[in-house]
Amino acid sequence: MTTGASIADGPAAAAQARAAPPVFAALDLGTNNCRLLIARPARDGFRVIEAFSRIVRLGEGLSSSGRLSEAAMARTIDALKICSEKMARRGVTVARAVATEACRRAGNGAEFLHEVKGATGIALDIITSAEEARLALAGCTPLLEPPHDHAIVFDIGGGSTEILWTSLPGGGRTEVIDWISLPYGVVNLTERYGAGDHASGSYARMIAEVAEALAPFEARHGLAGHLREGRVQVLGTSGTVTTLAGVLLGLPRYERRLVDGCWLDFNRVIEQSRQLAGQSIADRALHPCIGEERADLVVAGCAILEALHRFWPADRLRVADRGVREGVLVELMRRDRTRGDHHRGARR
């Protein structure tokens, strides 16, 4: 068991843990966000009993310095302390905490993980970009539906963007044909180009750079041709797409239940992206689904999204407010069931 919460040891505690239903936790520490889900298994997957998300900007300044800054690490540890307290209070029995691009790239990433362990008790596992893509897909699989037999799934992060080309053979299964991780995310693009605008041309330059990096993947697989046949679903999971969904739906405040799984007209998404690029940071911050924390970052995400749309202009985009955390939970619960089945079989 990998756990980030302090769980009491001893025979009595072990007996109590065996008797009580298991409580699972998944923590995803990204370049921009720290996200936690605590859940119990349910017939149709799992039931969330607590969720936590905080923008920590762990990767702030990383692209220029190659290291995590003291201020960013302090912000992140504060958020992780809250996560640890929530896991302990909820009696988490099985947990996994993963860290992605910022910790992969930082020269002091291992040192930071050691500091986190001492300050919070959470043992972070730095995962590869391949595992990050796989977990994101596992978390989003319930939103991939017939009659589509293929899907393009993308995850726009703070420091990288993962894109998966998958087949959907049926029965809720997915098979990854190929994937790519681009070194572009909302944090590092914003640091290089600024908050993005039409007047300076920075928005167009961001789109062009990301599109250039995407071109070989499209050339290798010809996804645009598959898309024209109408059997490819395009699904996006990230703060960028969920934020744009909240804006396009006209929500007075962000509501996950209205955003997760919704379908958007992809052309309208691009129109909205360009409108945001034409606004000041102050004007963007006024929208309740953007706010001050995302106002300077959202346009970089819009630029990545528009680069994707240039190659794969689907009529509709499905939005997922789920991803790595949910994928971690799915895998933890599957392993727990497998162990349970194994033990029951041994007892027979």
UniProtKB/TrEMBL annotation:
The protein, known as: Ppx/GppA phosphatase family protein
InterPro entries referenced in this protein's UniProt entry, alphabetically: ATPase_NBD (IPR043129), GppA/Ppx_hydrolase (IPR050273), Ppx_GppA_N (IPR003695)
Domain of life: Bacteria
Gene3D superfamilies xref list: 3.30.420.40, Exopolyphosphatase. Domain 2
Domain Ppx/GppA phosphatase N-terminal: 38-334
SUPFAM superfamilies: Actin-like ATPase domain
